[in-house]
Amino acid sequence: MPNNEPAIHTEALTKTYRYTEQQPGLAGAVKGLFRPDRRERTAVDNLQLTVPRGQIIGLLGPNGAGKTTTIKMLCGLLRPTSGELEVLGHRPARRGYEFLSRISVVFGQKSMLWWDVSTYDSLLIHREMYAIPKARFATTTKDLAERLQVQDILNIPVRKLSLGQRMRCELILALLHGPELLFADEPTVGLDVVAKLSVRTFLAELNRDLGTTIVLTSHDMNDVAALCERVAVINHGRTIFDGDLDALRSRADAGVDADLDQVMSKLFTEAADV
Q: Which GO terms describe its biological process (predicted)?
């Protein structure tokens, strides 16, 4: 893909879930069997988003706003109901190897490491999955381990690591194959102050040194302030703001040093009143 093409581009991206509601009790079960009460819920509604290569963008919103659904469509885990979606020049829902080898996802609340073996053993499995040459594997593992300061714990079973140690090892696993695009979903959730700072510093260096595009979802506004040059705020499946942090504060009629949690709270309150 030419460097002047965006990493992510969506046009009227929409995801609708169809489901049935059932009344309690035996009568409700029987009625649901013969006359199901079918409903629809729009999780993402006409999302317009273009992310240039090399940018760190924060995808923000309250729980249930549509962030996770959006990320899953961008990764190819969900197929859009309608609209256009292109990531690194590919249609994500096709889940082709060339596409998957150029992206990665790290979840703060879901481990991708094998629990009962060491991080290094999980890295060896990923080396085989992505057909990484041994020399490149050794160099990349050493570089990432040094950057994240985990050289001494790679051979310890994952279940014996602290949450902060595990998160740093998760990042090594996610970045082992050298993805161009990283989806970081709540990467600092539950971490202490020192561990959070370590993860933030690493992500900033990854973007600066390698030009990795990063899509960050986080409820920690300190993560956002430290990393994101741009934020897109989603509420009820729709984008209600897209711009930098200064513009976000201005939108909420707040000062340049206003607390971002208060700014976001005001923005959501105003959106609910519309």
A: response to antibiotic
